[in-house]
Amino acid sequence: MRKNIIAGNWKMNLNRDKGISLVKNVLNRLSFESNTDVIFAPSYVHLDQLVKMCSEVSNVYVAAQDCSFSDKGAFTGEVSAEMIASFGVQYVILGHSERRENFKETNQLLKMKVQQALANNLNIIFCCGESLGQRNRKEHFEFIKLQITESLFSFSEADFSKVVIAYEPIWAIGTGVTATSKQAQEVHSYIRGIIEDKYGKQVSDKTSILYGGSCKPQNAVDLFSQEDIDGGLIGGASLNEDDFVSIINSF
Ligand code: PGA
Q1: Residues at CB less than 6 angstroms from ligand 1
Q2: 196: pLDDT confidence band, cut at 50, 70 and 90?
Q3: What is the per-residue pLDDT for 174?
Q4: Is 46 among the catalytic positions?
Q5: Can you tell me the distance from the alpha carbon of 90 to that of 108, in angstroms, rounded to the nearest whole number?
Q6: 167 partner at 20 to 30 Å CA-CA among 88, 131, 146, 195?
Q7: pTM greater than 0.85
């Protein structure tokens, strides 16, 4: 019904040779019977090469880690969704907590980025998730709802069908602390519920919701066995061939 997806978010890691060699090795080990889509999300400079390497392989896609809020113009250093799409890239990650935190990306700015991505026919992996303080104060559900509502819910049902959600509790990202499968399932099911309220059950049933935050071979099977967890957005472990392949094979 809905897709299982494992996306590797390389963040600002891997030079040309290391990136190419990682992708080559992972592709060699993928099983063709797998029902899981695999996405590599490298830095912009790798995109062209990775699209060339992956375009002939079924179920394997490439994602940018971000795109500009603007379509073009005097924005030195920015990369537009149109440029990304013109290289054959299929996905873009938007709203990662590291961008929200380090580059002050707001829900409103992200809505503009979503608009750009959709206008250029890119699929979106939209990240949301709370800080530890928000969880301790039991504000996490409301916070996540606001992130999703303000950035995504003004778009049509057809547009929303291009969105994958990644729930990434900030306290679990790169910390080695993972949300328990019960904690993650609770939030995933909440997210599916708010999508159902907005777009109906058919759409919410079809939306893949990924978990991110110290997902590793050791906890992937447990996390992915939950009803509303449809895969993972993997940071650190996606840089290691054995770990990434093992996570892909965890369904
Ligand atoms: P991590 O990162 O797997 O290293 O915790 C996940 C992410 O930030 O996407």
Answers
A1: 9, 168, 173-174, 212-215, 233-237
A2: very high
A3: 86
A4: no
A5: 23
A6: 88
A7: yes
Q: Which atom of ligand 1 is nearest to the CA of 238?
A: 3
As a whole number, mean pLDDT of residues 10-28 equals: 98
* pLDDT computed for residue 176 by the predictor: 84
For 52, the token pair is: 């060339």
Measure the CA–CA gap between 221 and 160, rounded to whole angstroms. 28
Say if residue 198 is exposed, middle or buried (CB neighbours under 10 Å; 0-12, 13-18, 19+): middle
Beta bridge partners of 234: 8
Query: Please, which pLDDT band fits residue 33 given cuts at 50, 70 and 90?
Result: confident
Q: Residues 91, 60: contact at Cβ < 8 Å?
A: no
Query: Does 96 qualify as catalytic in the annotation?
Result: yes
Task: Decide if 166 contacts 124 (C-beta within 8 A).
Answer: no
Q: Which of 96, 98, 105, 130 is catalytic?
A: 96
> pLDDT by residue (tens digit) across 199-239?
999 999 999 999 999 999 999 999 999 999 999 999 999 99
H or E element at residue 188: helix 181-199
CA distance 166 to 99: 14
- What phi and psi values does residue 68 have, to the nearest 5 degrees? -75, 155
- The CA distance from 140 to 130, in Å, is 6
DSSP 239: G
